[in-house]
Amino acid sequence: MELGWDDDPESVWRCLLVLSVVLPKEGIYEHGHFVVVNALAPEAFPYEIFWAHIRTLQRVCQWIDVQPRATA
Question: CB 3.0-4.6 Å disulfide test: which of 2, 24, 27, 37 passes with 32?
Answer without folding.
Answer: 24
